[in-house]
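batch_manifest entry 22 of 60
target: Pseudouridine synthase
source organism: candidate division CPR2 bacterium GW2011_GWC2_39_10
requested by: lab member K.T.
priority: normal
notes from requester: please return tokens only, no post-processing; we will run our own comparison against the previous entry in this batch. if the run fails, retry once and flag.
--- input ---
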Amino acid sequence: MKKDYKIDNEGSGKRLDVFLVSRETNYSRSFVQKLIIGGRVLINNVSGKANMILKVGDSVSFTAPEAKKEEKLKPSNDIEIPIIFENEEFLAINKPAGLVVHPAFGHPDDTLVNILVSMRPDLMRLDNLRPGIIHRLDKDTSGIMLVAKTQEAVTFLSKEIENRKVKKHYLALVFGKVDPKRGEINVPLKRSSVNRKKVDVSAAGKTAITNYEVAEELGNATLINAFPVTGRTHQIRVHFSYIGHPIIGDETYSSGLQLLEAKKLGVTRQMLHAYRLGFKDPKTKKWLELEAPVPQDFQKLLQKTRMEK
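--- output ---
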């Protein structure tokens, strides 16, 4: 859907995002800002920015999907998500493995955000479908996630992530002995044209960089500290598979023999855990570093591989 507006005296002096929200009441401000960042909003045929001030005579056009007022999240009271830290601006949670972040085909109401809006109903005022979600983890990846509680926090933290100012630290248990013990994996990634659920290494893809260091050698497995510089879909998983050391339990990027080996070890998901995040508090701008405890299934596998070393 494409719409066009000609700015008159009433719209003059307003921020671009504020103006669009006032005219398009089906859309939240965070949704409008995502459209702007995605280049879907033009001012005088040039990509706009959310904080641009409009003036009389400006031409504003944007393209967006139809929004349904009745389309809202269904709260889920089945479980509660462990909270690592909370203040007025954001939550830091420890996402369990096996949980999809937001509704999608096959997961209409059994997701992280369904649980979050049950725990914190006020989040719904930010966005009907992805309230406070500024980044995500794969379904079978566990660990720390930030959830914004105010529009200011959404804007600030989203921009920090976009500018690569949030420091991420993952733990990964991979197959084989990794050599060298410290390095950088810098290969571009793109969504597979054959299987849309997979990501491929491709010269036509986007820049993707993962730094790493070996934390512990465990016979035919290695515990890795991974520090992604970029945040591409499946990045760590694809990168370590590319260098010949897929993450144990990764059904998408492991070989058949490796999947059999993971099954023998009792592994039911990829052994990837978002362990630590370093970032600025949206309000105080103080640097924070928060950690998510390593889950039991990860710890048990570490103990098992140590005993078999």
